[in-house]
């Protein structure tokens, strides 16, 4: 059903900022467009905030070249390279876009945190597996994903799957430049696909504890930006716009013996200091619709709807509990048990919700102290995965996780709302209430009583 506050295609097109994966650290990874292969995600369905399997890349070959390089270090053999010795290697990914060299990304790896993941990645790099593979899924405000042997996001590497090595430790949080492993819904399904975070947002914060971060960028911001800026499209109507329109390729994955160099540049997405500051506003609204409006399902007449909207507006101005007004009157769907019904955070064009990301980081920091010992017990085999998930859910309940993240999970781009709703939301002052009248062009779903919350 199309959401009555947004344009008809927006329900399929929207980018839910946090979606299901914020509810549990290992609960639900997303499947994207295409087959369910290795995925990295913060959501479900067509989420542009989910590092997961995408559609086939435009212009990509149907199958990556088979590895032809003779391994130098034999990371598959722990007698050749022990876990302790993994720290003595780093990786350089040389890249090109449409045949033009765009430099290289150099990564320091974290074997002290994720030894199996690091060993797996080093092995694929050492064997030349990634040479010629594409970045098949690109989301400018989230991540770039590669390592699929067939260029579609559905493929796995030849060495099987590895166990998930997850943590809530802030030291290894998913932030700009962090290297992490893609997977499917199975937490132990990572194979060859990886992703690199190319912006900070509530979605990247929501990856912590669910995906195996295992390294960080120490050089090559310009290269990461060149790939992240590749234009994209949706591979099917209503899908996420993550299919690259240019061919972004790892030309060579190089394993270098010796510790990674220290950064000589700021590892962060470059910002134009002269660019106007985008805004993010949070509003709560009541929709009053009528029988002639399709897809909403209201039974009242247009005149009755107008009168009721005016009544609700007067109650809101008089200080009535707005949440109760939503529950009692709104024709917008209200999820049972939703502690914050009718709330949306609207992102203006170019906006990134850094404040929302910090809120999620703070909640994760609270959780870390309580979940870390449970994680150790899981790793030591003292808890089953189901027991672990049940105990983490209990922690989340005690921290009021669902209630605190509910508004953040409803962050939607301004363009996905009908124009009247979006324009009014951005004009309101914090605490102000307004009535948006029905208009077949600018407010086609009915009357909206809107309150600005921040």
User: Looking at this structure, what is the CATH superfamily of the largest domain?
Assistant: Cyclophilin-like
Sheet with most strands: 8 strands, antiparallel
> Remind me, CATH topology of the largest domain?
Cyclophilin
- Give me the CATH architecture of the largest domain, please: Beta Barrel
Strand order of the largest sheet: 3-4-6-5-7-2-1-10
What's the domain count? 2
CATH class of the largest domain equals: Mainly Beta
State the total count of DSSP E strands: 15
Write the layout of secondary structure elements.
Elements: H1 10-13, E1 89-97, E2 100-109, H2 115-126, E3 135-139, E4 143-146, E5 178-181, E6 194-197, H3 202-205, E7 213-219, H4 221-228, E8 232-233, E9 243-244, E10 248-257, E11 280-288, H5 302-317, H6 322-329, E12 343-347, H7 354-379, H8 385-398, H9 401-405, E13 411-413, H10 419-427, E14 433-436, E15 447-452
Parallel strand pairs: 12-13
Antiparallel strand pairs: 1-2, 1-10, 2-7, 3-4, 4-6, 5-6, 5-7, 8-9, 11-12, 11-15, 14-15
Helix pairs in contact: 7-8
């Amino acid at each position: 059903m199309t959401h009555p506050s947004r344009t008809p295609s927006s329900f399929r097109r929207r980018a839910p900022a946090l979606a299901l994966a914020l509810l549990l650290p290992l609960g639900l990874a997303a499947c994207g467009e295409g087959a369910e292969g290795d995925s990295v995600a913060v959501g479900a369905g067509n989420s542009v905030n989910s590092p997961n399997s995408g559609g086939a890349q435009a212009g990509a070959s149907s199958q990556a070249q088979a590895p032809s390089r003779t391994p130098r270090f034999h990371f598959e053999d722990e007698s050749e390279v022990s876990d302790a010795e993994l720290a003595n290697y780093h990786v350089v990914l040389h890249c090109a876009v449409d045949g033009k060299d765009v430099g290289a990304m150099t990564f320091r790896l974290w074997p002290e945190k994720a030894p199996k993941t690091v060993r797996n990645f080093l092995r694929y790099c050492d064997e030349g597996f990634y040479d010629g593979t594409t970045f098949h899924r690109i989301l400018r405000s989230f991540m770039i994903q590669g390592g699929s042997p067939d260029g579609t996001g559905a493929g796995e590497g030849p060495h099987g799957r590895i166990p998930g090595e997850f943590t809530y430790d802030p030291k290894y949080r998913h932030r700009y430049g962090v290297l992490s492993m893609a997977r499917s819904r199975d937490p132990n399904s990572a194979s060859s696909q990886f992703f690199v975070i190319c912006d900070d947002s509530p979605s990247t914060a929501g990856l912590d504890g669910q995906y195996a971060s295992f390294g960080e960028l120490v050089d090559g911001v310009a290269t990461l930006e060149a790939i992240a800026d590749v234009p994209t499209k949706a591979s099917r109507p209503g899908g996420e716009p993550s299919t690259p329109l240019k061919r972004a390729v790892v030309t060579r994955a190089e394993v270098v013996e010796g510790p990674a160099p220290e950064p000589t540049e700021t590892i962060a997405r470059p910002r134009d200091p002269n660019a106007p500051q985008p805004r993010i506003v949070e509003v709560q609204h009541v929709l009053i619709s009528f029988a002639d409006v399709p897809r909403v399902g209201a039974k009242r007449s247009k005149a009755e709807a107008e009168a009721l909207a005016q009544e609700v507006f007067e109650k809101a101005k008089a200080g009535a509990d707005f949440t109760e007004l939503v529950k009692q009157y709104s024709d917008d769907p209200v999820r049972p048990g939703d502690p914050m019904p009718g709330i949306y955070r609207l992102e203006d064009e170019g906006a990134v919700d850094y404040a929302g990301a910090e809120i999620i980081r703070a909640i994760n920091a609270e959780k870390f102290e309580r979940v870390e010992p449970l994680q150790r017990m899981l790793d030591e085999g003292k808890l089953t995965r189901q027991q672990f998930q049940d105990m983490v859910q209990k922690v989340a309940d005690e921290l009021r996780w669902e209630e605190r993240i509910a508004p953040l999970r409803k962050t939607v781009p301004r363009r996905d709302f009908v124009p009247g709703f979006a324009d009014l939301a951005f004009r309101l002052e914090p605490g102000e209430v307004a009535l948006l009248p029905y208009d077949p062009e600018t407010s086609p779903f009915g009357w909206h009583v809107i309150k600005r919350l921040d």
